[in-house]
Design a protein that fits this description.
The complex is a heterodimer of chains A (323) and B (331). Chain A has 323 residues and is of the alpha/beta class. Helices cover 33% and strands 24% of the residues of chain A. Chain A is built from 12 helices and 12 strands. In chain A, strands 6-7-8-3-9-10-12-11 form an 8-stranded mixed β-sheet, sandwiched between helices. The model of chain B has no long low-confidence stretch (mean pLDDT 92). Chain B has a domain of 214 residues: Rossmann fold. With 331 residues, chain B is of the alpha/beta class. The chains are: A alpha/beta (323), B alpha/beta (331).
Chain lengths: 323, 331
């Protein structure tokens, strides 16, 4: 697929700092990326790498400490409260736990209508819009519209969340681990539904997840995060087939395939990610990287382009070594 | 009981009595597990895999539950045994590793003490001996500087390290069978690979049998010798790992395998989702529980339940009226 070259979202040098027990923790340590209109960018990494924080910081649900975020040329990062509220209608979020993201004591049709009611208490055709949205996500509005959120299973709740997120006709969805809590058979239904709706509504997606297979399945491009930084970003297929960052390679090597013939992880990444309170100097991955040298300890590797649209932040990228 | 089997389960049923009615969480399960064998039990949430593993341990709640059938662990009948009798096999014959390492460890107790406890109570070791052994166990499960970590509290350890501590505690009394219920769910992929490799290695070194209970087919694909696939409280297919993955006959097994995305597939590959969702155990119908979601279902499937029967290959069993053909079932 050819990506149109107009970024819908531009993120530049985004930093998010949390204050924990009097100490500063840089959860996101200066990341930059673009998301083009109509594409899906997958954001993958292990827990604590800052992927969810990134998703929330884009919408300023968590205030970034520095950096710029441009949505369709409008700087989200400098908007006042009122203008931010308006801008947020263009980007909607879907969260991990479908059951806790819906109010159990509200009726499904009211949950889906909530975004509309927020902006206009007399939205014309409100009920029709809601019924249409519910039908689109596979929930029969005539049968289930008046039921309460608590009466639904996890998969159905996630369908309702999707319907709600589409009510404002957003340009973009940020999906934060939206299928992690679901069983595989239901997960496949939701991923297929998301793909269909993306085409139908011309959506742009930021898809945040820890599951490598799921991320590859939905994404056009993938960004791999480690300890608050992006170590590699590129087209999904080439990043998975030819990872250039050692961390990406280990991550892919650790992924479990439902296949008896798959390899049995002889090369397992040792140790655990260091604390973000005290990140290593230079390259943040160097403490676990088998290829690390003194250079990695002293200098932060800058993203370098190794192929069309494929960037890696490593002093010794694997693909170049191979050539 | 055959000498070669560590576990023999015969027509095991676990029925919970709830206000809404009886829930047959495990609805008649029979299988055996050989010594030094690794068995995978897979299924979606609500399939009964966790209740099955807890019933085998004898860990079901005291009230509102009826367990019938038989579970023999190394000859010991678990069903109907008193708490005191069961305590004689917990730890020494069978031990369990649970999913969430934070809740299975006591947050107010040093990790070393939590391992000591089993050694002193069950094996009657002296304080000094128990401490020495606990440090050895921490080292065995790959905890760096075990002597210092002995005095750490669980909150000072990461999720992966806590799970290692839980494994060390489970191994304290050298059990012959280790039951691991979703041991890596909630852990990051790189840590998951570490823990699964550790379990593999320990199984070989300590000559144990292992039961891996999981929803993730990837976890069992390369680490088990046999697999049980559960659906709605029953075994729907069982065989060697190779038989279940490559020559499955039950449509549910096939659907489950095909619905999970794979790293090897190109991006935007359309997933083969299973329509509908797992049945409500309160409202189980007469026929095959999977029939409403099955594309091969016939009238017979809706009215009569298929029993688990042996296929042409020894040890490979499935419960289906319209099994997939022998050839062409491979992926």
């Amino acid at each position: 697929m050819t990506t149109p070259k107009t970024p819908l979202l531009e993120v530049r040098d985004l930093k998010v700092t949390y204050h924990v027990q009097g100490k500063k923790v840089q959860a996101v340590a200066g990341i930059s990326f673009d998301i083009y209109e109509g594409e899906t960018l997958g954001l993958v990494g292990e827990s604590g790498c800052g992927k969810s924080t990134t998703g929330k910081a884009i919408m300023r649900i968590i205030e970034p400490s520095s950096g710029t975020i441009n949505l369709e040329g409008v700087s989200i990062s400098s908007l006042n409260k009122k203008a931010l509220r308006r801008a947020r209608t263009k980007v909607q979020m879907i969260f991990q736990d479908p059951i806790s993201s819906l109010n159990p004591r509200r009726r499904v049709k009211d949950i889906v209508a909530e975004p509309l009611d927020c902006w206009d208490s007399n939205t014309p055709n409100r009920d029709d819009i809601v019924s249409d949205l519910l039908a689109k996500v596979g929930i029969d509005p005539a049968v289930y519209g008046n039921r309460y959120a608590r009466q639904f299973s996890g998969g159905q709740c996630q369908r309702i969340s999707i319907a709600r997120s589409l009510a404002m006709k957003p340009k973009m969805l940020i999906c934060d681990e939206m299928v992690s809590a679901l069983d595989v058979s239901v997960q496949a239904q939701i991923l297929n539904l998301l793909a269909d709706l993306k085409d139908e509504y011309g959506l742009t997606l930021l898809f945040i997840a820890h599951d490598l297979a799921v991320v590859k399945n939905v994404s056009d491009r993938v960004a791999v995060m480690y300890l608050g930084t992006i170590c590699e970003i590129g087209p999904a297929d080439s990043l998975y087939n030819e990872p250039a960052h050692p961390y990406t390679k280990f991550l892919l090597g650790a992924a479990l395939e439902a296949d008896v013939n798959s390899s049995k992880h002889n090369e397992v990444l040792q140790g655990e990610p260091p604390s973000p309170m005290d990140p290593p100097s230079g390259c943040r991955f160097r403490t676990r990287c088998p290829n690390a040298t003194d250079l990695c300890a002293s200098e932060v590797p800058l993203p370098q382009t190794i192929a069309e649209g494929h960037q890696v932040a490593c002093h010794y990228p694997l693909t170049i070594a191979r050539k | 009981m055959s000498e070669n089997n560590i576990v023999e389960v015969e027509n095991l049923q676990t029925v919970f009595s709830t206000a809404a009615g009886d829930v047959p969480a495990v609805g008649g399960v029979s299988f055996t597990l050989g010594r030094n064998e690794t068995l995978g039990i897979v299924g979606e949430s609500g399939s009964g895999k966790t209740v099955l593993s807890r019933t085998i341990m004898g860990l079901q709640p005291r009230t509102n539950v009826t367990v019938t059938g038989s579970v023999k662990i190394n000859g010991f009948e678990v069903v109907g045994a008193s708490e005191k009798e069961k305590r004689s096999i917990w730890g020494t014959e069978v031990a369990m590793v649970f999913q969430d390492p934070m809740t299975s460890l006591n947050p107010t107790m040093k990790i070393g003490k939590q391992i000591d406890e089993a050694l002193r109570v069950r094996l009657g070791m002296s304080k000094a001996d128990a401490k020495k052994r606990a440090i050895e166990l921490l080292e065995l499960v790959g905890i760096p500087s075990p002597a210092e970590r002995y005095n750490a509290y669980p909150n000072a350890l990461s999720g992966g390290m806590r799970q290692r501590v839980v494994i060390a505690a489970a191994l304290a009394c050298s059990p012959k069978l280790l039951m691991a219920d979703e041991p890596t769910t909630g852990l990051d992929v790189t840590i998951q690979a570490q823990i699964l490799n550790l379990l593999d290695e320990l199984k070989e070194r300590l000559q144990m049998s292992v039961v891996l209970v999981t929803h993730d087919l990837g976890v069992v694909a390369t680490r088990t010798s046999r697999i049980i696939v559960m659906y709605a409280g029953r075994i729907v297919e069982t065989g060697t790992t190779e038989q279940v993955f490559n020559r499955h006959r039950m449509p549910y097994t096939k659907a489950l395998l095909e619905s999970s995305p794979r790293v090897a597939d190109a991006s935007h590959t359309r997933l083969k989702a299973i329509p509908g969702r797992p049945p409500n155990l309160l409202k189980l119908r007469d026929g095959c529980a999977f029939a409403p979601r099955c594309s091969f279902a016939t009238d017979k499937c809706h009215s009569q339940r298929p029993e688990l029967e042996e296929s042409v290959e020894t040890g490979h069993k499935f419960a289906c009226w319209n099994p997939l053909p022998i050839t062409g079932a491979a992926n």
